[in-house]
User: Which sequence fits this backbone?
């Protein structure tokens, strides 16, 4: 069947067709020459995007799904775990001929989703206890919207906008109303009333107030018309009209409070990043963050061989041999050690435990991959106290 969209099918990916051609040629050579060496290869990032000190790992479930049924062993960090530069986060072991053509796909599965999860986690820290929704699916190919919003949710977003993504996560989709509805209806208040009349009562009524007129006056008009049924107002003011976004929110808040609408929440969206979220947090109750998350810089993971037939070996600039990453349960001190080496006791007196766990054993998924909500909880716990 001819693809209607320019995407690879599950069969293309599982069949090793989504690979750089030099891996296919490598496999051809190995077969012709009868080379069946067993190797260990590890995944790590020697550096992170600019100004990042840490990352949140994502994409591990898809790694397991890709390699399911193939004669390999994989151990890895759990999805949602924090990692640092140079720490191996996963290792694959088996005959190189059995997995060499999957390097391209394996890296792609974790590089992009980890980038999205990490940016989402940074936004989460910036927002504190404020609500954060992922609004950026429209900036990416629709085929990968569920992957992007799953990673955004894992990293810390409270909700996602796309219906298919929400179904994958088993949450309700989160959104307000578009400018298009207001333009078609011809008036902000009329559009909000129509929303209130038609849409299920479980959906919070959040009016968009920057389409036609001054935000302050539109907020008051909508609040006066909707009374207690209005949950909040959203400002998505374009940069050309924005001026000082914080001051606009302050003005709207003042006027709403002065007229008895203190319970009406303020939502911000449009071109937000960590710095802007931090700046607006004192006055804003919720954030819709789009391109910043969905177009997050990827984490530049590499997959490198570091053991062949039981012998430690690596290319220049890399550490050879199988490794473990251990973490103190008391002070969170971390170390990279040779696999099987004694962990010792932490200087604080705490106990070191490994961050690695079996994922796939001889092609069988042995890990509890976890529900997205549980992975999100793990990530939120892991980033607690970290600096941006």
Assistant:
């Amino acid at each position: 069947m001819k693809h209607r969209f320019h995407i690879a099918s599950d069969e293309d990916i599982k069949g090793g067709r989504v690979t750089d051609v030099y891996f296919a040629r490598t496999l051809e050579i190995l077969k012709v020459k009868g080379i069946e060496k067993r190797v260990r290869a590890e995944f790590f990032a020697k550096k992170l995007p600019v100004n990042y000190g840490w990352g949140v790992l994502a994409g591990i479930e898809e790694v397991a799904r890709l390699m399911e049924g193939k004669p390999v062993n994989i151990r890895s960090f759990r999805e949602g775990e924090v990692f640092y530069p140079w720490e191996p986060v996963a290792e694959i072991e088996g005959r190189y001929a059995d997995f060499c053509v999957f390097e391209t796909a394996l890296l792609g599965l974790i590089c992009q989703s980890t980038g999205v999860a990490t940016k989402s986690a940074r936004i989460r820290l910036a927002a504190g206890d404020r609500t954060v929704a992922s609004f950026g699916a429209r900036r990416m190919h629709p085929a990968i919207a569920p992957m992007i919003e799953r990673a955004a949710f894992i990293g810390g977003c409270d909700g996602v906008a796309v219906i298919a993504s929400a179904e994958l996560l088993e949450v309700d989709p989160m959104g307000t109303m578009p400018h298009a509805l207001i333009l078609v209806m011809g008036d902000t208040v009329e559009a909000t009333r129509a929303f209130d009349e038609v849409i299920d009562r479980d959906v919070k009524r959040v009016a968009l107030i920057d389409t036609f007129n001054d935000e302050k006056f539109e907020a008051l008009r909508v609040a006066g018309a909707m009374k207690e049924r209005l949950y909040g107002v959203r400002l998505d003011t374009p940069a050309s009209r924005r001026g000082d976004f914080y001051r606009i929110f302050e003005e709207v808040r003042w006027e709403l409070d002065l007229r008895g609408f203190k319970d009406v929440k303020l939502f911000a969206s449009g071109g937000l990043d960590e710095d802007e979220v931090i700046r607006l947090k004192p006055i804003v109750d919720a954030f819709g963050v789009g391109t910043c998350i969905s177009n997050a810089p990827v984490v530049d993971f590499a997959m490198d061989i570091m053991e062949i037939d039981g012998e430690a070996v690596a290319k220049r600039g890399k550490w050879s041999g199988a490794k473990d990453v251990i973490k103190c349960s008391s002070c969170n001190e971390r170390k990279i050690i040779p696999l099987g080496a004694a962990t010792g006791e932490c200087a604080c007196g705490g106990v070191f435990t490994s961050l690695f766990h079996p994922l796939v054993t001889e092609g069988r998924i042995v890990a509890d991959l976890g529900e997205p909500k549980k992975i999100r909880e793990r990530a939120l716990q892991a980033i607690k106290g970290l600096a941006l």
Observations:
- The mean pLDDT is 97.
